[in-house]
TrEMBL record, chain A:
Gene Ontology CC terms, in alphabetical order: plasma membrane
Record InterPro entries: Na/Glc_symporter_sf, Na/solute_symporter, Sodium:Solute_Symporter_SSF
Stretches that traverse the bilayer: 6-22, 42-62, 74-96, 117-142, 148-169, 181-199, 231-250, 271-296, 394-417, 459-478, 484-506, 513-534, 540-563
GO MF annotations, alphabetized: symporter activity
Record localization: Cell membrane
Protein name: Sodium/solute symporter
Entry keywords, A to Z: Cell membrane, Coiled coil, Ion transport, Membrane, Sodium, Sodium transport, Transmembrane, Transmembrane helix, Transport
Signal peptide (residue range): none
Family label: Belongs to the sodium:solute symporter (SSF) (TC 2.A.21) family.
Example GO biological process: sodium ion transport
Species assigned in the record: Phaeodactylibacter luteus
Topological relation to the membrane, as annotated: Multi-pass membrane protein
Domain of life of the organism encoding this protein: Bacteria
Amino acid sequence: METLDWTIMLGTLLGIVAYGVYHTRKVNNVQSYLLGDRDLPWWTIGLSVMATQASAITFLSTPGQAYDDGMRFAQFYFGLPVAMVILCIFVLPIYYRLKVYTAYEYLEGRFDLRTRTLTAVLFLIQRGLAAGLTIYAPAIILSTILGWSLRWTVLFIGVLVIFYTVAGGTKAVSVTQKQQMIIILSGMFIAAVILVLQLPPEVGFSDAVGIAGKMGKLNVVDFKFDPSNRYNFWSGMIGGVFLFLSYFGTDQSQVQRYLSGKSLTESRLGLLFNGLLKVPMQFLVLFVGILVFVFFQFQQPPLHFNSANVEKVEESAYAEDFANLQAQHNTLFLNQQGEVYSLMQAIEQEDEAAISQAQQRLQEFRQTDRELREEAKGLILQADPIAKVKDTDYVFITFVTNYLPVGLVGLLLAVIFSAAMSSTSSELNALATTTVVDLYRRSWVTGKSDRHYLNASKLFTAGWGVVALIFASTASLFENLIQAVNIIGSLFYGAILGIFLVAFFMKQIKGRSVFLAALIGEALVLIIFALNAMEVIEIAYLWLNLIGCLIVMALAYLLHLLWPERPDLASA
Amino acid sequence: MPDTQPKTPTEPDDSRPPIFSSWRDMYWFVLLFHALIIAIFYWFTKAYS
């Protein structure tokens, strides 16, 4: 990396951190620290909500996904605008009416203290482990490609985030996210423009789109109903609404963003802003991946995008085999490039027969390309049996570091670091808020001064930051732990969502029924998980979200019917 | 720091949205905009496939 890139990257990141700390220097009470004085306008809330959801992996993996699989992943977000409208109608007015600090605080008023505490603890377990992964996942990719130490990359992201999140609390998170989101959107837009400019002079933007389309990459919408197809219109609209209702309605890292709004109106507008912009933003990120795909039709791509894996195999006994594959790949590329030009010409002449022939030949070339890449992965695994050979996450960062002009490399790295920092800061902030409001102040240490709880909030923020850092620094030693974190999320998320859905939509059900249903439901989810681990049954762990939620709702209803609570014992 | 007990509910300030006469119209705008985006994506898929 050149000096200019370092200057731009560090200047951008440190500038945002300094702005956040300066802007929140007068935060001196818990209300300010945890809810940002409830004075944020809608555009800050909207950008903050978007920045919380968009982690660094979004900007590293999504273009690679488009490169490999086309644009159908955009459909995953189709349910989001509908979820935003439902939350604005049903959920936001409830949170605002009760003036809650956390989503779980609402559950005490609706049910009882034990249900609130149980839900808060489930959230802390799940989000506390995920926070480390939010730092680790981009750090492993950036350190591999840039040749940086993994530990220093983790520390760089972690220490900066902890510094400004501890200093300014919620408001620091929101104001820095506003800046970070502006950098992220500008950076991705500039990357798209540069990609078009870097195509050969005879290939224009419309040619690039035409080539991508004819090579099957512009598959944005698929209306065919197919439950086995992960991304289509129906899975996005039905599954997506369910998923985004739970994420935006019950996850404190999101709830805290819109609870810091100036008014119910501003919070609603912030969520609707997210509903309007999120799908086009994902389209942009995926489209950048499509442009990278077209770029590599005219520029020789590597046989394998993870350069660290390539180095390993080149230093092993399989170096010669790999070089042979590389030579075949180079020849294939030249042949394929000629066919892409033929396709382009056929599109210009609107010659359907020639287009069809070119498509057929390109399909054969791409099949051969896939086979060569698989063989390369096989060699890498022979050289290093524990190597991670999925290389789509490395596609975009390879383009950034090798083909962007000096200066823009620094800007795009700032985009990726900004995304890592924005989502991590929300997580730390939400973890500390839930710990203080739902456990520490409510049950552990009651009746202390505002200053005491402010200091406790800062300490818990720093504490959760250290937990995330330790996990991120050691995650490479425990690859299975990462898988475990994803599984742990699915083990608890269903029960949390079930509790909230009962609270919002099954008004007759009271605290005892839902608490027992949550305990039994969680136990059943754990039993199903154990049976799956013992291979007695076979079920993908993502389904545990839905199973946990439905069990809690059904059991709560059954318990309510079989063992009704007396009105005087029930909460309002 | 607020009380440790659940708070008394108060009606939030629920003013009209800035660009439409009611929230219902605002929600319809978001949903129709989303439908338009999907329609454009569908056209994009068909036009270039």
